[in-house]
Amino acid sequence: MELKKIDKILNKEPKEAAEELLKEVEKAYGEVPYILNFMRQSPELLVTKVLYDNAIIREFKRLDAKTIELISIGVSAALRCDHCLKMHIRVAQRLGVSKEEIFDAILIAGTLSNAAVLAEGTRAIDSEKQNIAGKEKCEVCGIPEEKKVE
What we know:
This protein has helices at residues 3-10, 14-29, 34-38, 43-58, 65-78, 82-94, 99-133. By secondary structure, the protein is mainly alpha-helical. The protein has a domain at 3-101. 17% of the residues are buried. It contains seven helices and no strands. The model has no long low-confidence stretch (mean pLDDT 88).
């Protein structure tokens, strides 16, 4: 969004600015996401969120709209945000992204999510092994003794 347009929006009453931005969002996505509709009741917050999101997502010159939507699909899948995922799938389909491309993005998200779970879990195992190594163990069961809090 051009700075002149942002300046114009910021000089309007918050409610009017919010409605104008929501029209822009609908034009870009083909719909207004639930969260933004919900935020209508807080126009000052909505305006700043939409402007920020636009600066991050829509102003990239190095990534095309389809790539941005595929990334959004992958992230939505990884974060398990069902509503976000479905909306970004609809937007991607409107942009001509194939079912196979969408599935590939979801597979990548699954692979990375799996790696994150494994990395976190294995690090926790190693961390606890190190914690246990320095403690005295029960002669019967081998479980490390907890320090008594007095």
